[in-house]
Design a protein that fits this description.
By secondary structure, the protein is of the alpha/beta class. It folds into 2 domains: 129 residues, Arc Repressor Mutant, subunit A, CATH 1.10.10.10; 216 residues, Dna Topoisomerase Vi A Subunit, Chain: A, domain 2, CATH 3.40.1360.10. The chain has 13 helices and 16 strands. Helix 9 links the parallel strand 13 and strand 14. Helix 11 runs antiparallel to helix 12.
Length: 355
């Protein structure tokens, strides 16, 4: 059904171009503008969502500055059309390496795939284009992949990365008490080494290794839909960490057209809180002064539509603004080498130290 829809929508784009040519008009393509905050509304139940009256970018075929993009979009539409028709799949890497001259960079392909998903108003996975995932997951979780492979995330060494066809996993089995999103791979590996997922209470930990890819966000959402257990975020006490947490919770401007399947508005900020730095007396040599860029990022975060919804988060960010310092999760090691896993996280989770 969805495949038929994609085929029909691509056909109508091509017919539009043919119609323009037959009437001696210049063919143009119209893309929703995915980088503007002006195009996005905020709904506390869904997160950031592209508004219906969004502004658009017009790609003209007769204009030197946009003719390449016009050609790239047509090429990509033809590739997707063939994939959907033949019910086969390709990765974004395949598409780039088959046409390096035309696309010029992998990033161009990545952006255009999202543009087309938005223009055709279909989820990216319906375009039959896959992305290899960089995310990792471990803990009390078993699930079935689309091809029937059973994935068990419980052995401490086997950390499944869901880099197949997006995580359209089913038959999720878990007795986890919570899910914890970990910003960085280094912290994630540390928690694995300490056997964190079984020591405290059964849980699931997941990392997108920094700014999360779509697959990591889909997986967090899938776990929320299936298990309805608390979802916590463990990020650095810096503007970048807060922004990453906001992407999981509220979504991003660039992907706001797919917010309903990517956001988990119930995500709670477990740490590292700016107030923790004072409360725990983290040694000053483990703290880092905010750069000008950090200050700008913090200011921009505080003006975003969703922060007014979170007075507690606002307070923490204002505290960071006043103290003019940030800290990485690793800074807790300055208090004690196993402070994070033996004291900080157990106390936070036991006594409700999240916001």
């Amino acid at each position: 059904q969805q495949d038929r829809e994609v085929v029909t929508r691509i056909e109508s784009v091509i017919l539009g171009i043919v119609a323009s040519l037959s009437e001696d008009e210049v063919p143009v393509l119209v893309l929703p503008n995915r980088s503007s905050w002006a195009n996005v509304g905020f709904d506390s139940a869904i997160g950031l969502q592209m508004s219906s009256g969004h502004t658009v970018t017009t790609i003209r075929s007769d204009c030197p500055s946009s003719v390449t993009k016009f050609a790239q979009i047509l090429k990509l539409l033809s590739v997707i059309y063939r994939l959907v028709q033949s019910n086969s799949y390709a990765t974004k890497r395949d598409i780039y390496y088959n046409n390096t001259q035309l696309f010029g960079s992998q990033r161009t392909v990545d952006n255009l795939v999202d543009d087309l998903s938005c223009m055709l108003k279909v989820p990216r996975r319906s375009l039959h284009v896959l992305a290899t995932s960089k995310g990792l997951i471990s803990g009390d979780l078993c699930y079935m992949e689309e091809d029937g492979t059973r994935i068990d995330c419980r052995s401490s060494s086997a950390v499944s990365s869901f880099n197949n066809l997006e995580p359209t996993c089913s038959d999720i089995v878990s007795s986890a008490k919570f899910v914890m999103i970990v910003e960085k791979d280094a912290t994630f590996q540390r928690l694995l080494d300490e056997d964190f997922c079984t020591k405290l209470s059964p849980c699931i930990i997941i990392t997108g290794k920094g700014v999360p890819d779509v697959n990591s966000r889909l997986m967090v959402r899938k776990l929320w839909d299936s298990l309805h257990i608390p979802t916590f975020a463990l990020v650095d006490a810096d503007p970048h960490g807060i922004e990453i947490m906001c992407i999981y919770k509220y979504g991003s401007v660039a992907m706001s057209f797919e917010a309903h399947s990517l956001t988990v508005p119930s995500v709670m900020w477990l740490g590292l809180l700016p107030s923790d730095l004072q409360r725990l007396r983290v040694p000053s040599d483990a703290l880092i002064p905010l750069s000008k860029r950090d200050e700008n990022k913090l200011h921009s975060l505080l003006t975003r539509p969703y922060i007014a919804d979170q007075p507690e988060w606002q307070k923490e960010m204002e505290l960071m603004q006043q103290s003019k310092v940030k800290a990485e999760i690793q800074s807790l090691a300055a208090i004690g080498s196993d402070f994070l896993t033996a004291i900080y996280l157990p106390n936070k989770l036991r006594y409700g130290g999240w916001i």
